[in-house]
Design a protein that fits this description.
single chain; mainly alpha; about 75% helix; about 0% strand; globular
Length: about 130
């Protein structure tokens, strides 16, 4: 019975390694497709602190408590509309830079715009909790 358990463990480990490797290769292949742009934005947190009307220390304290950005905003009396508006504007400006450089086609731009609020912004402000 223990030989069977050990064999099963090895098979499961091998499967996990194979799946991980194949996902990495697939992601790399998708990234390298001609014309495929992977849009990403790096957030500067100073303006986010200002929006939330908190210092970096207060923000970090909220973060330690496990609050999402949306929860921080609510606690600070910032409306959901203002919070979302800030991030929509931020992404819009960044995507316009990408378009001007030619890094973002019209098709990719509209695809990003379509999913921006519902997916990217909502996830960022609601689900980025350090303690989850």
């Amino acid at each position: 019975m223990s030989v069977l358990k050990e064999t099963l463990k090895k098979v499961l480990l091998l499967c996990a390694v194979f799946i991980t490797f194949s996902e990495s290769v697939q992601a790399e292949e998708n990234h390298e497709q001609e014309g495929k742009v992977v849009y990403q934005i790096h957030y500067d947190y100073e303006p986010i602190y200002n929006l939330l009307k908190v210092s970096q220390k207060e923000y970090e304290q909220y973060w330690e408590e496990g609050l999402s950005i949306a929860e921080m905003a609510k606690k600070q009396g910032i409306s959901r509309r203002d919070l979302e508006g800030y991030f929509i504007s931020l992404h819009y400006k960044e995507m316009q830079k990408w378009r001007k450089k030619g890094s973002l086609s019209e098709e990719n731009y509209f695809d990003l715009v379509y999913r921006l609020k519902e997916h990217d912004i909502e996830w960022f402000i609601n689900n980025r909790k350090p303690n989850n």
